[in-house]
Amino acid sequence: MTPRPSRYARDPVGFIARFIRRNELGQPFSLLPHQEEILRLAFEFDDAGRLPWDTIIYSCIKKSGKTTINAANLAWWAFTQEPPNELLILANDLEQAQARTFKSLAQLIQNNPELSRSATIQAKQIVLSNKTVIGAIASEYAGSAGSNHGLTSWDELWAYDSEADRRLWEELTPVPTRNNSIRFISSYAGFEESTLLRELYLLGVGPDEHPEGKGERLHPTLPIYGNREARLFAYWDHEPRMPWQTEEYRASQRRTLRPNTYLRLHENRWTSAESAFITPEAYDACVDPEHRPALASRDRVLYVGVDAAIKHDTAAIVGVSRNGDRVDLAVVRVWTPSPEQPLNLEDTIEACLRDLHRDFDVRAIFCDPWQLQRTIQTLQAAGLSISEYPQSVPNQTRAGQLLFDLITGRNLRLFPSEVLRRHVLNCVAVESTRGWRLAKERARQKIDSSVALSMATIAAIDLGGRPPLEFYDTTDISLEVLIPVVARESGQQVDQDVLDQMRAGGDRSWKGTSLA
Question: Within 392-508, where are the H helices?
């Protein structure tokens, strides 16, 4: 049976109950009472078949089924509204657009035979027998102009904060020649510094939600609001309403997430982009009063991180050891230069690294190349395993997240160090749509040894579970793993041809003729 538009065109709840019996995972599915209430209020048509809203926001805490609701609503609209129709699914990029709502919609249709018989599912679009087309597109405004869409679906609008994002939003304004053309937004809260979603939030919610809210309350118990002048509907919830959102689950999330991240994801609260990185309690729980800095021993393997400043900041070297699933702090060195007495890299950083190379088995030294390009070249020529770890957003995010996980999971053993403790507690996590990075709250605060520690732990985790590279049998390790390791330790560009030559010759050493 094909869904009948005449019966369900004004009834999304009835359509979902009748035709969507299984969710995207193939499990039994039905709307919960609060979800039915939200959809009924959002889609109250007048006698002429017109909606009072152009923009509908569905915002609630993480793991509340936002994506499934979005996909189910898309299916209802596609099968019942003004065919032929055009529906557009947007996300930050095409891969995300296809991976989230589009994928969920495709699976909903596939798992419900009465829908799948009337749909042809392709890689980037779904075509229905009524000629309606549903497409997943990237956030590229120039290619989106001129569409005749009846609905655009926006996933996690909090992340749309660039000028290009704003232009995309403006290009995909509802089409006035259609009886109904709407935007459906599923998202949780973003940062207070965000613009687009924050503006819509203040325009839609009421004063009981935010003192600056311009909307009016539409439901006595559920946080549902409307601004009829702006034609904006907003469901903005902070409460856990799903059976699996237990207090135990939320408590585990509180323990493992930064405070502001927890508030944004699990309470749907607007937060500052800056939040405390580590609490004093979490740091102090990793300090072992019996643990001491490492004594010189060639049997002691070290992984080292370096963060340097010549005039205005501190410079730091931190070394760690890998101890099974744990990382142990071994060395902390900090220098405080000034404009009047700038840091002499040769007498400080380079001399210290040469000493560590002499006294320990230093497997890897990771450093920010910004101030250390000459140092890296000099020490590589001297045979030290030193390589660049540029402070790009992906690298900063990974290093900061690893350090956070090690501390909160108590997998980092620290000896008492006031300077390291002060630097770690001075850190704030600065989030953006591109990721997050460690930063200082105020310019006079120092965080350099914590940055060095994060790079050292990356080296320990990446390389600490393996034997020295010169003992690798290159026939037994994947190129995906071997290429970056050889390149990092040799300081040379390494490609598949080089490693194929090594394998063909049975070379067991990365210092073989292919790399010499």
Answer: 393-408, 418-426, 448-463, 479-490, 496-504
